[in-house]
Amino acid sequence: MEAAIEAEDEDRADRLQDEAYRLGEELSEAQAQLMTWNDTVKAAAGAVVTLDHDGKPDIFCNLFEHYNVNNSVLFLSSSAKKGLLVKKVAEFWRTGC
């Protein structure tokens, strides 16, 4: 894209910018799908949401894959990449009674 801008090829630079935007949207969609759980997991899950010093949420949640399998996950806003609200920074799996 920079080469197109430097060569003053505005049409090519615009096309590349549009493509970069489209790919960014696809990436955001894919990331959102990775953070989606089925209805059974959501029904059994619990979450604590707090506001961090940046005014954005931090989330601690428990996800259940099976009656005796628990997955605790911590999402922090301060670790999120630009354009995303939170990033998963820790995960702990437990099994057993």
Description:
This protein folds into two domains: 1-34; 38-97, no CATH class. Helices cover 37% and strands 34% of the residues. It is built from three helices and four strands. It has helices spanning 2-6, 10-34, 39-44; strands at residues 46-51, 57-66, 69-76, 87-95. The protein has a four-stranded antiparallel beta sheet with strand order 1-2-3-4. Strand 2 (57-66) and strand 3 (69-76) form a beta hairpin. It is elongated, with a radius of gyration of 19 Å. The termini are far apart. The model has no long low-confidence stretch (mean pLDDT 80).
Overall mean confidence score, pLDDT: 80
How many distinct helices?
3
For the largest beta-sheet, the strand count, sense and barrel status come to: 4 strands, antiparallel
Give the terminus-to-terminus CA distance: 56 Å
Tally of structural domains: 2
Radius of gyration: 19 Å
Order of strands, main sheet, comes to 1-2-3-4
The 3D shape can be described as elongated
Relative strand content:
25-35%
Class by helix and strand content? alpha+beta
The helix/strand order is HHHEEEE
The stretches of 5 or more residues where confidence is low (pLDDT under 50) are none
Helix content: 25-40%
Structure summary, number of beta strands: 4
